[in-house]
Structures are given as C-alpha cells and as structure tokens.
Write a structure and sequence with these properties.
The complex is a heterodimer of chains A (115) and B (113). Chain A has no helices and eleven strands. Chain A is mainly β and 115 residues long. In chain A, strands 2, 4, 5, 6, 9, 10 and 11 form a seven-stranded mixed beta sheet that branches. Chain A has a four-stranded antiparallel beta sheet with strand order 1-3-8-7, with no helix packed on it. The mean pLDDT of chain A is 90. With 113 residues, chain B is mostly beta strands. The model of chain B has no long low-confidence stretch (mean pLDDT 93). Helix content of chain B is 0%, strand content 57%. In chain B, the strands form two sheets. In chain B, strands 2, 4, 5, 9, 10 and 11 form a six-stranded mixed beta sheet that branches. Chain B has a five-stranded antiparallel beta sheet with strand order 1-3-8-7-6, with no helix packed on it. The chains are: A mainly beta (115), B mainly beta (113). Chains A and B meet through strand 5, strand 9 and strand 10 of A and strand 4, strand 5 and strand 9 of B.
C-alpha cells in the first residue's frame, strides 16, 4: 500500500531563517506531488505541484520554492522566512498519468511558526 | 475568485441526528467532487467522492448528493456521532486540469453527545 510521510511535524523558526520541509511517498511510482498550506481559519491553498522529477509548477507567488530531486521526494524550501509563512503545510500525492485515480492523499502535516 | 465555497464555517448537531454539509461551485468544468475530513494537527483524509455523471453516492453513514444544475453538492452524515466532529472540506476537479483540486474553505462540524 502507498504511504506518505513528511517532516518535521512541527518547527519554530525566526524571521529571515531558511526552511526545508521534506516529503516522501512509498508504494507507488511517478506520482503527482503537491504542497498545500492551511493558514489559520482558512481553507487549503495549493502552493506547488509536480508531475515528474524536476517539473515544478507554482500556483501562488511567494518566497517559497519546491524541488523534486527524486521521483518520490518533494521538498518545500525558503531562503528567508516571513511571519506570514506561518501555517500548516501539507504534502500530498495522487496517481500519475495513466494510473487512474482521482483522489489526492495527504501527509500528516507540518506546523510552521515563524517568530 | 473562490470557485468552491462552503458558506457555513461551522455546524452543530446532536448525536444521532443528521448532519448536512453544503458546498457550492462556479466552474462548469468541474467533473469530480470529493469530501475530506480533517482533525486538528492532522492531514485531511479522503471521505467520499462523486462523479458528475451521478447525482448520489453512498458509503455507509455518508452520502454525497450532487445537483449539477444548481452547482451544489452536499454531504449527509446519518446518524451523526461525536467522532465525526472535525473540519470537512469539499473539493472539486476540473476535467481539463489533471488531478488538480480546488478546495472550499471548510466547515467545522461539532456533534454533541
């Protein structure tokens, strides 16, 4: 069965510091990968999605970036965090092209507090 | 422009009664709809889905209804249980957007014992 893991689960970072959240998926190949954010009291906002290694699409302009160095690894980064980057970040996956399936599955989430 | 809206931020229901969560959308290209349930500090979990070729899909206590002409869908939970207390997100996929989902803002359901 497929599983998705992301870490760290929680972190507190000062303004201006870098960020790296990592996500890996197991049990599937060539998945579509996503980074979402849920800000306090708000819905889920798509930040980045990837259909393959090195292929990243950004949905929202911001100081965050994403990379996919391996097929089942997705990384969310920032060089300098802002207070407004605080939130709950969720990695997710769905079946890749031709593999069927319309459902997106989420990781456990990472709480980021920028202070 | 919010393409998927959940106009009720919260809903309180007595245990054993029916919970009805509503969702409205504006994009005519949406052809697949999903409901997710989210507990605090956890990732959302998939609950139930419906294709636009259907108007109803049932799975145990959960039923999703789709009214395409009104661009409206609803999730019914019968009977409601305290463990159902969570935030519920409605999501939609456009047929020309791969697996990209657009989420509503969520509705917090509280089921009172």
């Amino acid at each position: 069965s497929q599983t998705i893991h992301q870490w760290p689960a929680t972190l507190v970072q000062p303004v201006g510091s870098p960020l790296s959240l990592e996500c890996t998926v197991e049990g599937t190949s060539n998945p579509n990968l996503y980074w979402y954010r849920q800000a306090a009291g708000r819905g889920l906002q798509l930040l980045f999605y990837s259909v393959g290694i090195g292929q990243i699409s950004s949905e929202v302009p911001q100081n965050l970036s994403a990379s996919r160095p391996q097929d089942r690894q997705f990384i969310l980064s920032s060089k300098k965090l802002l207070l407004s980057d605080s939130g709950f970040y969720l990695c997710a996956w769905s079946a890749g092209p031709g593999q069927g399936g319309n459902t997106i599955y989420f990781g456990e989430g990472s709480w980021l507090t920028v202070v | 422009d919010q393409q998927v809206k959940q106009n009720s931020p919260s809903l309180s229901v007595q245990e054993g009664r029916i919970s009805i969560l509503n969702c409205d959308y504006t994009n005519s290209m949406f052809d697949y709809f999903l409901w997710y349930k989210k507990y605090p500090a956890e990732g959302p979990t998939f609950l139930i889905s419906i294709s636009s070729i259907k108007d109803k899909n049932e799975d145990g206590r959960f039923t999703v209804f789709l009214n395409k002409s009104a661009k409206h869908l609803s999730l019914h939970i019968v009977p409601s249980q305290p463990g159902d207390s969570a935030v519920y997100f409605c999501a939609a996929r456009a047929y020309n957007a791969g697996n990209m989902l657009t989420f509503g803002g969520g509705t917090r359901l509280m089921v009172k014992p």
